[in-house]
Design brief:
300 residues, 34% helix, globular, Rossmann fold, two-stranded antiparallel ribbon
C-alpha cells in the first residue's frame, strides 16, 4: 500500500490555522494529503469584543475551541491535537514538557513536512515566537533515538521544516483587510515583520481554495470584529487575501527541485517508494468528507 503524504502545522491560537495557513491546509487536504494541526492554546485570553462582555478565560477557551473545531472541518484537517497551554503564557511554559508533547505527536503522526510560525512571530507575538522555537526543537528531538522521555515510541525524522513568512506585498493585502497588526510587550510596540522577497523559498498558489478558507475564518466569530467589513469583500478580494502563501524552508533532507518551490512536498513526491495522488483536484473536493480526530494533548 502506498504511503500517504502527511503535513503537520504547529500553531499557537485558534484562528492561526485559518488566517495564516488556511489556503495551504485546504489545498493539500483537497489533494489527498493527510493534514494535522497541533494547537498550543485555546486562546483563553484573546477576547476581541467589549471588555464588559468578556466571558472569562474558561468560557472563552470553550468558545474558541468550538470555533476551531468548526474551522478544521471546513479546511479538511484530519487530526486536531490540543497541547493545553495557556494563552499569552506559552513562553513561560516548561519548554521540556511542551517539546516532549510535540515530539510525541510527531512520532505518532509521522509527518513528512512540518510548518510553524517564523522566529519573528509575524508581529513579535510572544506565543508565536515560542511555538516557533518549541516546534523547531521538537523536530530535532523527534529524530533523536536518545530522546527517550516518551517510552517506546519510534523516532521519526521529518523531511522538511518550514516557517510561514509574509513579504511586504502580502502584508499590505492583510493590513488592508485586518488593519495594523501589532502587540505591546513590556512597554515596547511590536509590529508586522516583512521578510525580503529573496528569502522566500516556497510560494504556493492557493487562490482556488479561498472559499474554504473564508468558511473556516468565518467560524472564528469571537475574533472577527465587525462582520460587515468582511461581508463586503468580493471574490477577487478573497483571492488576493488568501491566494498566495509563502514560506521559508528551514531544513530539508531531500534535494531541492527549484530555486523557489511551488510545493511543500517538492523532492518528496519524486521518491520512487511513494506514489502520490495527482495535484490537480477540484477546489475543496474532499474537505467535507475528512475524518477529524481530536486529541486533548495526550502524549500517549
Amino acid at each position: 500500500m502506498d504511503e500517504p503524504l502527511r503535513l503537520m502545522c504547529v500553531l499557537a491560537h485558534p484562528d492561526d490555522e485559518s488566517l495564516a495557513v488556511g489556503g495551504t491546509l485546504a489545498m493539500y487536504a483537497a489533494n489527498g494529503v493527510e493534514t494535522s494541526l497541533l494547537m498550543a492554546t485555546r486562546g483563553e485570553c484573546g477576547w476581541a469584543g467589549e471588555a464588559a462582555a468578556n466571558p472569562g478565560p474558561r468560557e472563552l477557551g470553550r468558545i474558541r475551541e468550538a470555533e476551531l473545531r468548526a474551522a478544521t472541518w471546513a479546511l479538511g484537517i484530519r487530526n486536531l491535537v490540543f497541547l493545553n497551554q495557556m494563552d499569552g503564557a506559552l513562553g513561560q511554559s516548561d519548554p521540556a514538557m511542551v517539546i516532549a508533547r510535540i515530539v510525541a505527536e510527531i512520532r505518532r503522526l509521522r509527518p513528512h513536512v512540518v510548518v510553524t510560525f517564523g522566529p519573528d512571530g509575524l508581529y513579535g507575538h510572544p506565543d508565536h515566537i515560542a511555538i516557533s522555537q518549541l516546534t523547531t526543537a521538537a523536530v530535532v528531538g523527534a529524530a533523536a533515538p536518545a530522546f527517550d522521555e516518551l517510552g517506546d515510541r519510534r523516532s521519526h525524522q521529518v523531511d522538511k521544516l518550514y516557517y510561514r513568512v509574509w513579504t511586504a506585498a502580502e502584508g499590505e493585502i492583510y493590513r488592508a483587510v485586518f488593519g495594523e497588526l501589532g502587540i505591546d510587550v513590556r512597554g515596547t510596540r511590536r509590529e508586522w515583520v516583512a521578510w525580503p522577497d529573496w528569502s522566500v523559498t516556497t510560494r504556493l498558489d492557493t487562490a482556488g481554495y479561498w472559499s474554504e478558507v473564508w468558511e473556516a475564518a468565518s467560524c472564528h466569530r469571537s475574533q472577527l470584529g465587525n462582520p460587515a467589513r468582511f461581508a463586503a469583500l468580493s471574490a477577487q478580494d478573497h483571492r488576493r487575501l488568501w491566494g498566495t502563501q509563502q514560506f521559508y524552508r528551514v531544513m530539508s533532507l531531500v534535494p531541492g527541485e527549484a530555486e523557489v518551490e511551488d510545493d511543500l512536498f517538492a523532492g518528496i513526491r519524486s521518491r520512487a517508494r511513494h506514489s502520490y495522488p495527482g495535484f490537480a483536484a477540484s477546489n475543496g473536493a474532499t474537505s467535507a468528507n475528512a475524518t477529524m480526530v481530536v486529541r486533548q494533548g495526550s502524549a500517549a
